[in-house]
Amino acid sequence: MSNSLTAFNEAKWTRDMQPIFYKENVAIALANTELRDYLESGTRVHKPYMSDLIDQDYTKGTDISSFNDLTATDDYLDVDTCRLVPFYIDDLDKIQNKYDAATEAAQRAQRRLNNRLDQKVLSNYSSANAYISAQDLGGSGTDSFAVTQGNIYNLFAVGARKLEHANVVQGAELTALIGPRLLEVLRLAVAGRETGLGDTVGENGVVGNKFGFKVVVSNNVPFSAVLTYTNVATDGDTIKIDDVTFTWEATGTNCNAAGEVDLGANADAGYANLVLAINGTTAGTTSTYYDVSVADRKKLRDHGIVATQSTGDDTVTITGYGDVPIVESTANCVLTSNTQYPLFLAGKPIELIVQKAPNVEFRIAEKRLGRYIYAWTNYGSGVWTNMKDSFLYAKIDTSSWV
User: pTM of the entire structure?
Assistant: First the structure.
């Protein structure tokens, strides 16, 4: 017998669509948002500061010969970032689809915008006047250092000491912003002891309290890496960014597989192609690069990965956010630095002005049965000059991360 009854089989559809996972955001909880009302209109808010005053000895009965000259310096913050996630939903799809695509897409668009806002706030790490480097942890020099169970206590102690040295601690809540890898080291270091740390991450990334700091974990801790090249790469060699693989392809053989990058006529040309491939902002060609998979492009987008080339220095700098390992297996190229920048803050020294909060607008599509949907936000972030002592960053060596 050879019955063929598969046409009778019933297909089932789940109640909900599959989720897409996004980073949880911490910026709103960490940043100072009190200036929102100042920019209901306009693009810039000013907050000047005055010069410091110098004291002097006074002798009775003698004239004061030197007076402090008072000077004021303008300082300002711009609302200069507008991010948009546009899409279209046809009314026929709205009627005929099982799932509410518009609502689902709108929620995901807001999560995408929140992630960008988070990264904008944390990009201010480099505005801090102080940092923690190898020499602060018993090493030498101002370069990065590896965090271990043996020195992670020292990292927090140095952070507290430097904030106290800047006279900014009294009355201010101390916050340490770290990534999941540093949290893992911290948990292992305090294992079996009374830690003050929770076993899970709570609202706004709060884990608990340790060493006088409220410990917050984020997948958006900033990082940077520098690739220094000396000559043309070798066909088949690779560079991996969080396991997103870019593979060098011999010139003229055509880039036709995910992540392939053309070697170029010379080193500068080849690494210019690599920058294009990493950023993905221009369409790839068979003579430049072939784009990575949709899943890998999402991973790079979530991490805010951006690559820039300096032909004068023969370098490619990769910046982004999160615990991102970068591994190169490329002839004539060396990963000369790979550094993450966790933050230690007294109070809320980073300003965030959200002129328009991330939300969704529906607009009728002329000459169509449907709606254009725009999820968008407008904001600015920065640090006032006199607040740059109120936080600092650490230079964490991540070259061993895989």
Answer: 0.90
